[in-house]
């Protein structure tokens, strides 16, 4: 597995992150050995980033036990925001009180004295972003957090936060965590370009769209056991994209899951898919996506099946850039970043 730098930092992170949300429940006597085997398989493949959250049930506790004796070998990331006590109005949100108490709980549960990457789990519209950024910076200065990121927030608030951090000498967000897959490409409108402009790493959750792109779904067959998706809720578009993924997988000698995960990486060098699994076999398959390189024709086939439109202002600006009447003939011939409107430099 290859490594990249986390945002504009010097921290080396693997191209695939491991999602430990599947450790939500400690389970029976066979569960912990299976969890340990999964973590071992990820480490053996070269992976070093583990993603969890304070709200992921017993995941932090399980990880704390599994990481005993090898904690420093991993980049441990966790999140705060979601409620610790639904009856306490201050037990949730991005304000300083919840950050401090949530962080102390996570440190205790993970059996560590520092968090490598601490994420704001969700934008809290009731807390000023200045308060959140200053509180995060204080945690960094105290040595309890090394780097910070934000998950599930609009591009404008992330831009405001990082600009504010730059002005005031606070720790900026090095990472952005968002949902991203062939069926859900919304981040290409604002969030992904914003992250690339700020040099942020993008942790992409749900790269298999809840299992829809794993190869289990076609019009002709029912999914196997273990899927969380209701087949009756799938649209013709869902099935069309799933079939395109299966077709590309067959052509490349890969699995559908590997193709779907590889596509998220092909869109931008900033993207790090978060791969999860229910067992070692499934995780090993998903980790194989690191070795899958999609040809341009395969990417075009996959994206044509999705039918995605960037919407305003992205599509309008792209049209204007291609029109000599707007910026002149020389500029119109340049295309967008990377050689064409809407195309990422990584492509």
Structure description:
With about 350 residues, the chain is an alpha/beta fold. Helix 1 (about 30-45) runs parallel beside helix 9. The chain has helices at about 30-45, 60-65, 95-110, 130-140, 155-170, 190-200, 235-250, 255-265, 280-285, 295-305, 315-320, 325, 330, and strands spanning about 5, 10-15, 15-20, 50, 75-80, 115-120, 145-150, 175-180, 200-205, 270-275. The chain is about 40% helix and about 15% strand. The relative contact order is 0.11.
Using DSSP, what is the number of strands? Answer: 10
Structural class: alpha/beta
What is the CATH architecture assignment of the largest domain?
Answer: Alpha-Beta Barrel
Cα-based radius of gyration, to the nearest Å: 21 Å
| End-to-end separation | 20 Å
Overall tally of domains: 2
Q: What's the overall average pLDDT, rounded?
A: 92
Percent of residues in helices comes to 25-40%
Query: Looking at the chains present, what oligomeric state does this protein adopt?
Result: single chain
Strand order of the largest sheet: 3-4-5-6-7-8-9-10
Largest sheet: 8 strands, parallel, barrel
Instruction: Examine the coordinates and then state which fold CATH places here, giving the name of the CATH topology of the largest domain.
Output: TIM Barrel
Q: What's the tally of helices?
A: 13
Order of helices and strands: EEEHEHEHEHEHEHEHHEHHHHH
**What's the shape?**
globular
Fraction in beta strands: 5-15%
């Amino acid at each position: 597995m290859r490594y990249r730098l986390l945002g504009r930092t010097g921290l080396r992170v693997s191209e695939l992150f491991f999602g430990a949300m599947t450790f939500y429940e400690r389970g029976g006597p066979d569960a912990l050995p299976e969890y340990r085997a999964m973590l071992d398989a990820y480490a053996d493949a070269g992976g070093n980033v583990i993603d969890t959250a304070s709200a992921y049930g017993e995941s932090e506790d399980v990880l704390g036990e599994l990481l005993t004796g090898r904690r420093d070998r991993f980049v441990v990331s966790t999140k705060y925001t979601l409620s610790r006590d639904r009856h306490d109005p201050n037990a949730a949100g991005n304000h300083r009180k919840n950050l401090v108490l949530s962080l102390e709980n996570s440190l205790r549960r993970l059996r560590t004295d520092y968090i490598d990457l601490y994420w704001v789990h969700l934008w809290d519209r009731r807390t000023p972003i200045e308060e959140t950024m200053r509180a995060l910076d204080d945690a960094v200065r105290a040595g309890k957090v090394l780097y910070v990121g934000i998950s599930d927030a609009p591009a404008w608030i992330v831009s405001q936060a990082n600009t504010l951090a730059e002005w005031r000498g606070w720790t900026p967000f090095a990472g952005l965590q968002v949902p991203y897959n062939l069926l859900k490409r919304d981040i290409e409108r604002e969030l992904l370009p914003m992250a690339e402009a700020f040099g942020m790493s993008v942790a992409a959750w749900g790269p298999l769209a809840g299992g829809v792109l794993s190869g289990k779904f076609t019009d002709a067959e029912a999914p196997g056991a273990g899927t969380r998706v209701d087949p009756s809720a799938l649209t013709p578009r869902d099935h069309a994209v799933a079939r395109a993924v299966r077709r590309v997988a067959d052509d490349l000698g890969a699995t559908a899951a590997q193709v779907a995960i590889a596509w998220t990486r092909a869109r931008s060098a900033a993207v790090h898919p978060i791969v999860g699994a229910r067992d070692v076999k499934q995780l090993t398959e998903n980790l194989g996506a690191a070795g899958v390189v999609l040809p341009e024709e395969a990417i075009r086939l996959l994206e044509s099946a999705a039918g995605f439109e960037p919407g305003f202002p992205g599509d309008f600006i792209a049209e204007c850039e291609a029109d000599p009447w707007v910026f002149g003939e020389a500029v119109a011939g340049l295309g967008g970043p990377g050689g064409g409107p809407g195309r990422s430099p990584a492509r």
